[in-house]
């Protein structure tokens, strides 16, 4: 049904495809679990987040760490009250891109 945002589904299948391709020929492997990655940045982030519990994107208001810039951006409105994602159809503002996508799909029925 429409409970899952389209973007999530497509990025998940993209990630699965990515893994399939690079598991066989991955130049950068995680030194903890041996998982292969295609970019040094990706393996570094994987090691930090999954194995070391380090979150590279820090909130400069409260010091909380986040795995991705997107999660950090979604957290910032807690401090600033700003909502970075704006619906281009009706102008409503949202903290999260996924919430905006769901809103557009539900109310404006666009892809
Ligand atoms: Zn690993
Ligand atoms: Zn914060
Ligand atoms: Zn709207």
TrEMBL record:
<dbReference type="Pfam" id="PF00096">
    <property type="entry name" value="zf-C2H2"/>
</dbReference>
<protein>
    <recommendedName>
        <fullName>C2H2-type domain-containing protein</fullName>
    </recommendedName>
</protein>
<feature type="domain" description="C2H2-type">
    <location>
        <begin position="85"/>
        <end position="111"/>
    </location>
</feature>
<dbReference type="InterPro" id="IPR036236">
    <property type="entry name" value="Znf_C2H2_sf"/>
</dbReference>
<dbReference type="GO" id="GO:0008270">
    <property type="term" value="F:zinc ion binding"/>
</dbReference>
<dbReference type="GO" id="GO:0005694">
    <property type="term" value="C:chromosome"/>
</dbReference>
<keyword id="KW-0862">Zinc</keyword>
<dbReference type="Pfam" id="PF13912">
    <property type="entry name" value="zf-C2H2_6"/>
</dbReference>
<dbReference type="GO" id="GO:0043565">
    <property type="term" value="F:sequence-specific DNA binding"/>
</dbReference>
<keyword id="KW-0863">Zinc-finger</keyword>
<feature type="domain" description="C2H2-type">
    <location>
        <begin position="28"/>
        <end position="56"/>
    </location>
</feature>
<dbReference type="GO" id="GO:0045893">
    <property type="term" value="P:positive regulation of DNA-templated transcription"/>
</dbReference>
<keyword id="KW-0677">Repeat</keyword>
<dbReference type="InterPro" id="IPR013087">
    <property type="entry name" value="Znf_C2H2_type"/>
</dbReference>
<keyword id="KW-0479">Metal-binding</keyword>
<feature type="domain" description="C2H2-type">
    <location>
        <begin position="57"/>
        <end position="84"/>
    </location>
</feature>
């Amino acid at each position: 049904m429409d409970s899952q945002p389209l973007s999530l589904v497509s990025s998940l299948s993209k990630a699965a495809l990515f893994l399939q391709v690079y598991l066989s020929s991955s130049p950068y492997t995680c030194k903890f679990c041996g998982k292969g990655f295609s970019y040094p940045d990706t393996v570094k982030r994987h090691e930090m987040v999954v194995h070391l519990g380090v979150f590279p994107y820090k909130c400069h208001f409260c010091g909380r760490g986040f795995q991705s810039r997107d999660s950090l951006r979604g957290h910032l409105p807690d401090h600033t009250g700003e909502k970075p994602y704006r619906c281009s159809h009706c102008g409503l503002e949202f903290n999260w891109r996924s919430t905006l996508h769901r809103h557009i799909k539900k109310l404006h029925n666009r892809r």
